[in-house]
């Protein structure tokens, strides 16, 4: 298989750092370019990035000189694919243009997620949605990654979707890494919970329906799934915990749900795909961010589910997603792998 | 008004300490006895208690020699009323016997809350339930205080109860002080969320219906209100945050809800009753434990509500209760005040 | 006594908020003006300030329209005295000019602390240094408040200064409120310690010598006290803990030290002066930020000391200062009270 | 090389879990027995241990049935070497007996560390102290691992020991994992610092002198190094930060110190020995627990040092040690590897 040259848009942010971490050790992609708003033609990645993922910036990228965002649209094409961790407004101006120029874009930005012609992917859930790309007009593809909490909700709902009746009530316990850096002020969150995350509930209402929708006649018909979300930030570094409850089909019991969740299969042959994307924790107090956020192989790609109960037809459960990996860079790289295998990259 | 001599059962625990804090400055009650499992006939309160509410044990109780639990049942009657913060199993053995002996018991223990002949009180919500006491056989009364999270849910639901249709979906973000001392191990909760609290969800299912039930023919007919709870512990010291959502009557909008909540009146003439027991926070990120846990006068007696939204007939909101004050000792003292004014004490 | 009209420069920051909290209930001063970099001629204090000290902005200031900094130098004199919580560079441009205009300035800013003609005050320690003001050329006085950690160190060293020999080795455990708002990013400090605080160690080296210096011939001769500081930020909201050790005079034992600390007297007749400014905690694990940060009356004005030991002539101890009250606004207001009584205001 | 069968005494505690984590992937040792106070003849490791190091107990040990402590002394010899994470009082009764029986004991317990005939080892610092074992009377060896904070102090002092003059003043910022499980109550440490750790300062006074002592005539002559420690617990999960300051030889500057620290070499050919045991961090705010606690290969075996400054002959610096790995199980396993290569195992 031909290796692909790749770059990262927004490489110094939290999601950008996770992209770096994933791509510096990737068997299919060569990370060659890092784009940042802090580029000035001279700044190297190390020395500019406030690296938060361990003691050292990976040595293979430490000396890369940061490129300005605009440079991706001008001059010769240095990369085959870019992973975007741009803020929505910058992404809006750049991503479609890059695709038009022939650069494939896998984006974690929110701005194009709900566009009718753009797939919003969780590879194990809606792989067939990539066919939306067949009708594209641009030379490069543009594919999007969902909101982090959306992934933590859609993953466990996927195998049980036929059993759900009516609304899914959701409350989130979201990690501070989800707000980027510097993000949440310590004085606001230390020993505290903040019951508001700008724009988050809107995403949780919109995105799951599209991801769980069905492809018909070249477009996606949204699933009727209705989410009723209350989102809050908690003092956790990594891992969004999601509480959800919903009415399920009469006669369904907890074991039915647990079996369906445990039976969900992983994608074969993709480096970032865990063998099983969902793990059911039978312990009474799991999933927990401290123990389950880096679950799976690669670490952080498994969504953990626990405390499934069904009483009087009402399902209650918790799930946990690593917000910057499965809910961010890791899922985006998995999308790229799927696109590559399917021939879109 | 005659002053009453009172005591505290379980005076060294967290709720016990809040009782001490409240009662050492109370205009109606004289705190004269402190009962503890750590009593040995010699130990003073200061020096035994691991006081967690400030730099100093209140001077008026620091020299009180701790009494053994059993002593309340033997010998002469030293107190008119006891406030109980006993663990359920100890309370089970002691509280009814004390009432039989003629000592009035206001209990924060869970063991008698659902007993048919015992009122489970939030004074502003179900004051009329005290009439259950009219038929009692014991010389002393036994009245109970709800679970902390129950109070945080029932208070905002009370004024809007007629608008709620179907289940109320609840997720809690509960403070570590709710687990007592030593309670939660720091290694379990530091930078973490634990999605399980033993027995909590069961209480949230049972208690609200009783509190919001109606007194008919000398007994309480439970409200049909159905709660679907998911409880979790977060790294917060004081203040349980409660996320709730429910279908509301067609045509209801957020302003209707907000008005009803803001209009809820306080009880007059009771020292622990805030002027308004419910406060609606219009800021977009409230209520927050750090800012709202000690709201009201006396501090911690107001339940704060925020983020009320109604979309497609579905209400979403957050409330916040100080778990050891309004959800514990403070509410229990307010019950005693109400009992006193109504002539039961 | 004539009441004085006062204002706060930098009223929306953390120290500014503590000034507001202190001055809205002050018996001598009337808080009439709030100056902020966020002023635009229309903005009110409530609605602009991100109030972090409780559920509500004090009602007496909520409607005050914020003034621009510059306005203090132009137009008519609206205030007799201003309390300054300005950043150093802004203070540099404004404070001396305000004094020249006849406005008295009590400043928490760092820029003039080491100026030869400006007193750097801890009222209980170096009240006589106010005499420096006798030689001033400006119509208004300019007096400064020390760095927060400096106060936590100087207060316990003051009564034992004659026993100290050689360097005082200091390590600090500093609260996040010391960095202002938004200040420290939660991703940097959550579950962490950051062993660096910009400029802090320099202040700890310079300031104690001036405060503990002696006034001779109209200027201050610095004390030879030498501090060897290592400063670190910890995940605490309020209260800087200070570890210190130093050689003490031969024959000194721990009791000698404890007695001297406990014997330190407060200033009489000043509203912000606690009866005793130093409290010795005999418990083996004190002082602790959670229990001792708001010690004293007014709360937060007492410095707590504990764990005094002397072995082989080497003293070890911990002290704790509320960094925004005794180490900030509270100490500054106490300075103003002292100036008022001494006739400088 | 012959593989050795090994066991862990106290396998369910925090240090025990780190031993399990290290030994289940060790190239020289086979982990075959797990001893626990919770053994009852039936309990398996998984299901008994409250595993805190990740989502799953390592599969190779999950089914091991726990053995009682006493069983190591009775019956046939199942293990060649045991790693002990016993509490001091249990270790006192067991460890010497086990050695007498011919089982080699590498112990993290504190009880025998200062015994004259027992080496107290940091392999890169005092490897020659193993010769103490040449004179042993027991069939098995007994070697001890230092206190966690001691390791964090001795490692950076070792290469600069000849430059130090007089006392080393130390303040620690210690992680909660150092107190075991359940250990520190969350109500005591959340958002707090506790300036007391039982027995810690005594160990910091005693142990460094022995480790840095010299072997003469079959016994160790302690180094004259004098430590003046103040120990505190902070809200950090892993990693003890150590602040230290001391007078250094005239003419020494920071670069001299930094060079000596960076030049310290690792041990060759031992699986748990990092290439360089000391890393100097040149960033201005390092070392930090969140970034540096798992530094090195194997992770957690490197001690990080930063902020070295020398002013007026006074050195100031910070170091960071992973308290359960380099300051616990990892160092103990490295000792075993060294013993094996030197022929003592």
In short, what is this structure?
The structure is a homotetramer of 345-residue chains. With 345 residues, chain A is of the alpha/beta class.
Q: Which blocks of ≥5 consecutive residues of chain A have pLDDT under 50? A: none
What is the overall number of helices of chain A? 10
Give the rounded overall mean pLDDT of chain A: 97
CATH superfamily of the largest domain in chain A: Dihydrodipicolinate Reductase, domain 2
**What is the N-to-C succession of helices and strands of chain A?**
EHEHEHEHEHEHEHEEEEHEHEEH
The share of residues in extended strands of chain A comes to 15-25%
Which two chains touch over the largest interface?
A: A-B, 39 and 37 residues
CATH top level assignment of the largest domain in chain A: Alpha Beta
> What is the CATH topology descriptor of the largest domain in chain A?
Dihydrodipicolinate Reductase, domain 2
Structural class of chain A: alpha/beta
> How many domains in all of chain A?
2
Shape of chain A: globular
CATH architecture annotation name of the largest domain in chain A: 2-Layer Sandwich
Strand order of the main beta sheet of chain A, please? 7-10-6-11-14-13-12
């Amino acid at each position: 298989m031909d290796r692909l040259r790749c770059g990262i848009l927004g490489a110094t942010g939290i999601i950008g750092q996770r992209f770096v971490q994933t791509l510096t050790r990737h068997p299919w992609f060569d990370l060659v370019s890092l784009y940042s708003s802090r580029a000035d033609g001279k700044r190297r990645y190390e020395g500019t990035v406030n690296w938060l993922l361990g003691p050292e910036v990976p040595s293979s990228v430490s000396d890369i000189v940061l490129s300005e965002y605009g440079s991706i649209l001008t001059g010769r094409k240095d990369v085959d694919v870019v992973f975007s961790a741009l803020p929505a407004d910058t992404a809006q101006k750049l991503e479609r243009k890059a695709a038009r120029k022939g650069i494939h874009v896998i984006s974690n930005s929110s701005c194009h997620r709900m566009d009718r012609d753009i797939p919003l992917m969780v590879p194990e859930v809606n792989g067939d949605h990539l066919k939306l790309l067949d009708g594209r007009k641009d030379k490069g593809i543009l594919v999007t990654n969902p909101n982090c909490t959306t992934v933590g909700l859609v993953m466990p709902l996927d195998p049980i979707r036929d059993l759900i009746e009516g609304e899914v009530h959701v409350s989130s316990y979201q990690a501070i890494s989800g707000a980027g850096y510097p993000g949440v002020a310590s004085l606001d969150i230390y020993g505290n919970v903040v019951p508001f995350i700008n724009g988050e509930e809107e995403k949780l209402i919109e995105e799951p329906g599209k991801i769980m929708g069905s492809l018909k006649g070249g477009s996606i018909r949204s699933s009727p799934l209705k989410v009723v979300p209350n989102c809050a930030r908690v003092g956790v570094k990594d891992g969004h915990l999601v509480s959800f409850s919903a009415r399920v089909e009469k006669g369904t019991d907890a074991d039915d749900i647990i079996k369906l969740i445990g039976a969900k299969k992983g994608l074969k042959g993709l480096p970032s795909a865990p063998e099983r994307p969902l793990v059911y924790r039978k312990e009474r107090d799991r999933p927990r961010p401290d123990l389950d956020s880096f679950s799976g192989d690669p670490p952080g790609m498994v969504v953990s589910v626990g405390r499934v109960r069904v009483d009087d037809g009402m399902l209650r459960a918790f799930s946990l997603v690593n917000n910057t990996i499965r809910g961010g860079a890791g899922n985006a790289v998995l999308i790229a792998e799927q696109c590559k295998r399917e021939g879109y990259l």
